[in-house]
Structure formats: structure tokens, C-alpha cells
Amino acid sequence: MISDLWYKNAVIYCLSVETFMDSNGDGVGDFEGLSRRLDYLAGLGVNAIWLMPFQVSPGKDDGYDVADYYNIDPRYGTLGDFVDFTHGCKQRGIRVLIDLVVNHTSDQHPWFQSARSDPNSPYRDWYLWSKKKPANADEGMIFPGVQESTWTYDEKAGQYYFHRFYEFQPDLNTANPHVQAEILKIMGFWIQLGVCGFRMDAVPFVIAEKGADIKKPKEQFEMLRTFREFLQWRKGDSIILGEANILPKDNIKYFGDDGDRIQMMFNFPVNQSLFYALASGDTEPMVAALEQTREKPHTAQFGMFLRNHDELDLGRLSEDQRQAVFAAFGPEKHMQLYDRGIRRRLAPMLGGDQRRLELAYSLMFSLPGTPVIRYGDEIGMGDDLDLPERNCARTPMQWSDEPQGGFTTSDKPVLPVISKGPFGFEHINVAEQRRDPESLLNWMERLIRMRKEAPEIGWGDYTVLDPVKPGVLAIRYDWRNNSVLIVHNLKPEPVEIHLDVGCGEHGNLLIDIADSESSEADGKGRHRLLLEAHAYRWFRVGGLDYLLRRTEL
Ligand code: NOJ
User: Fold this and answer.
1) Cβ neighbours for 371, distance < 8 A, ≥ 6 positions apart
2) pLDDT tens digits for 312-325?
3) What is the number of the ligand 1 atom nearest to the C-alpha of 65?
4) Residue ranges per domain, the chain?
């Protein structure tokens, strides 16, 4: 059944428990608060939640520095609350993915504390040590400008330890079979508590060879197969969604030739060129990125996204393209980060213009993959550039115009709620938008329904139609005798196009899925479409009786 591969046609909603909903008034979001908001998420139509790290952690990298993999941060509740939450999700048909951060631990993790204190500790080899400072210690930093090195001297150990990320995140020696066994144990634990898979943090680094003498680290791809196999044995529908900002030529190595490694990966090349397309109206680099990432095993899937909790990384664009995106969306230095990206949320980047926001989400939802949105996207939340680094885009969810946006009754929220300017909670909040049929929230609900009812996008083959006018992207998806056609005008001016849908007579009738309009082809099989500035149109090709033609196998 196609629904067994649920991730091919899902809509994933990413959130941080800490900033979603506080139930006990201590200023910190918690699982009980989140559970109370599940009907909201079910109503929105998302069918999977990705939870950012919530395990015990000193919180120096927003939980990506785990100090105990088998417990949750007590500020968020108890393991009992967690199981209540996964149960509540199950009842509503929502699957739960959680972050799996096993490239590194916190330096406060008992494994690291033991490893540094005693050369004979069983955990010594769980980390990577060097007596001398390795020659490449000043290379490969992930957070340039904030992180100084990748090897830091530890007084207690009397040696240098390796850390790809911040110095309080020592890398695990993932080649060590004991570490690998522990990773499986961690996955098994959370699977047992009701999760359906993992967003695996920093996959290329997890599988890279590590050590002071390694010049050109090779990837240990078999590790991915081991993880995947284990998951399938424990729970057949569980998946790994990899965070892997890699070159398209390596995609298949991550998915596996036969689709026997990770099921999903975020599509970073398309993400970056999509922002370039939004900035310039030039869709060519995005079409090229789609082409480069077209090949994948049948069971694999890309996660499509606009903004996530990190900076918008533009590192793979050409210098000119990157400058175009900076100029359009993050012209000031304090909007940029790590010499490669922009740290703002999408809504402020697009000037809060709902038409452009709709265009951006419609475009992302119509690309070949599974859309991943972030809490607050559905109401167009903004950012607080006074907060350091990536925290600016991690402020609490804005539920209403009550104090602290209804996130907490405490006057000391864990991060400040946005309260100034056009993106303040008094203007941008769920309660207000729920009442307005034209709001972004209600529009997003309709978009989600539309996307879920077009499984052609998740499952089918796509064709970028040609020729269309500059700034217009027309994609047709075909799957099991059904087709959808989605057209976007990225330019700020209206445009008229004459389109041959490219599938014979079947293509003579287009029914607009969102609107009551339809289009019939002229004698030459071409549709004349008038697209307003920043318009998006979703069509079902050949009429609406697709449900009759569709087979569920
Ligand atoms: C990637 C995560 O998305 C980011 O937020 C984090 O800082 C690093 N990995 C380190 O875990």
C-alpha cells in the first residue's frame, strides 16, 4: 500500500517543545502544553511532527548538546508526559520524528567526563584524542567567527579532543562498535516510546572517518544501512531523515543504490536556489538543482523546506547569486551569519507580504519531495535580531494577543516573545488568524490539504514544461494515470503564457484545484493562462474524476 511509505506524501511540522506552549507557567514550553495543542496541529493537517532536541542538556546549543540520551530535560516534563504526547499523536494519526544528535555529545555527558578523567575509562575511545595539536586544528569549523578550532586541549585528559562543532560538543568516535551499538540502543529506546523515526543531525560528520591523522575523511556509508536495518526490524514504518548538506552527486550513496540506507534527506541545493529564484525571479538554477537531485531510489524522498531553525545557508550558490540573495533578503550585516547565510525568518525577509509568502510556500509545497514547515510559519512569525546567532528565529509561538502571546503566564519566557513592530504578537497570532478566512493560517491549512490530495508530487515523475516565460515555472507530475500541473509566476508583474501541458488530449482540460476556474486548450492544444504578479495555480489535468482513476495499491 502506498500509505505504508507515509513519508512520501506527508507534511512535516518542526517544533521546539521549549518555545511552543507552556502549561505550568514557568516560562518554559513543555510536553503537557504541546499535547494540549495537538488538536490545533491536527486541524492544520500536518501528519508528522519533528521535535527538536528535548533530552537532558546544558542547552548551550539549543539542546544539540545532549548530556543524557535516555531522559528528557525536566523543564519540559517527564518521560510519562512524553509518552502521553506520542499517544496523543497516534490517536490523531500524527507521526513523531525526533532529532537524533549522535555526532557529538555535550562535554557534560558522563561518558565524556569519564573519558577525560581516566585514560583507562571504558569511554576513553568513545571520543577522539590527540597528544599534539593536529596540523589541521584550525580548519573545518562549522561556526566560523564563533568557533575557533576543531581540536581543543583538555587539561584533565592532558590531550586535545576533536569537535566538529562548538568546543563544548566533543565528537563521538562513531567508528567504535560500542558507540554504534549505543546509537542503536538510543534509537530503540525512543522507538519503544512511540516515535516513528529520526531527523539525524549532521549525517556526513557522523559517518566520516575521524581522527588526528585523517587527511581526507572517507564516509562509512555502511553505518547508514546498519541504522536503517535496525529501525526496520524494530518498527517497519520508522525512518531516518538526514541532515546532509552534500553535493548532489553523493545523494545515492546516502539513499543507497537499492534504497537500503536512509529514506529521506533535506534537499539543500534546491533550498538555496529556491531563495535565489525568489530573490531574482530567475528559476534556472533551481531547475538545474532539481535535475541534479532527480535521481533517487523509488522508496527514497527529499525533505523540501524554506527556512529551518539554523541560518539560511547560501554556501553552495555562486558568489553573484549569493550576493543577490543577501541584497534582497538580508542586506545588513546583523542579518547575516557565519559568512554564508541569513539568520532571519521568512516572513520578514519577504516584508510580511502575504502574496509573496503564499508564492514561496506554494512553490516549496509543489516541488518533488515532502514539505517540512516550522512552527510559526503558518502565521508568518517574525524574528528578533537583538537575540544572538540563530536564536533570533527561535522565539516562542504566538498564540494570541494575551500577554506573552499566550505562550506562557510567566512574565519571564525562556526567550522573549516578539512584541514590537509589525510581527509582534499583538498583530501576528493564531487566535486572530483563525477568525479570518483570508489569513495565512487558513490559507496554509488549504495548501496542506491540496498537497496531501496530490500524491503525484510525492510519488510521481515530474516534467518542467518548456518553453515558458522567464520567471514562470510550470511543473507537471504524472503518477498512475493522473497528472497535476502547478504554475508559478515569480515576477512582480503579470504575465500571459501559452502552455502545452505535454500529455496529449488528456491535457486539454485543466481544473484549478484551489479556485473554481478551469481552462480548455485551444485548437493547437495550448492553454492561455493569465498569471498575476506572484501568482500560483494548481491544476488537475484532465478533470476531477481522478479519484475514480486512482488505485490505492
Ligand atoms: C545541526 C543543527 O541543525 C544545528 O542547530 C546544530 O547547532 C548543529 N547541527 C550541531 O548539532
Assistant:
1) 11, 12, 303, 304, 305, 364, 365, 451
2) 999 999 999 999 99
3) 11
4) 6-103+175-451, 110-162, 460-550
Instruction: Kindly give the distance from the C-alpha atom of residue 64 to the centroid of ligand 1, in angstroms, as a whole number.
Output: 6
Architecture in CATH of 6-103+175-451: Alpha-Beta Barrel (3.20)
If one counts every other C-beta atom within 10 angstroms of the C-beta of residue 291, the result is 11
For 169-191, how does the pLDDT look when each residue is reduced to its tens digit (9 = 90+)?
999 999 999 999 999 999 999 99
CATH 3.90.400.10 fits 110-162, yes or no: yes
DSSP for 280-294?
HS--HHHHHHHHHT-
Give 87's Cβ-side CA count (13 Å radius). 7
Residue pair 518/493 in contact (Cβ under 8 Å)? The answer is no
pLDDT per position as a tens digit, 239-298: 999 999 999 999 999 999 999 999 999 999 999 999 999 999 999 999 999 999 999 999
Which one, of 444, 16, 64, 6, lies nearest residue 243 by Cα? Answer: 64
Say whether 460-550 and 6-103+175-451 share the same fold.
no
Given 201, 219, 311, 377, the catalytic residue:
201
- Phi, psi angles (nearest 5°) of residue 465: -75, 145
Count CB neighbours of 448 within 10 A.
21
Residues with CB under 6 A from ligand 1: 61, 64, 101, 165, 201-202, 243, 309-310
Q: Which atom of ligand 1 is nearest to the CA of 101?
A: 11
Q: Is 243 a catalytic residue?
A: yes
Residue 271 CA to residue 286 CA, distance in Å, equals 8
Contact 18, 28 (CB under 8 A): yes
257 among known catalytic residues: no
Q: Are strands 336-337 and 472-479 parallel, antiparallel or unpaired?
A: unpaired
- Name which residue sits closest to atom 3 of ligand 1, judged by CA: 310
Q: Span 460-550: which CATH code?
A: 2.60.40.1180
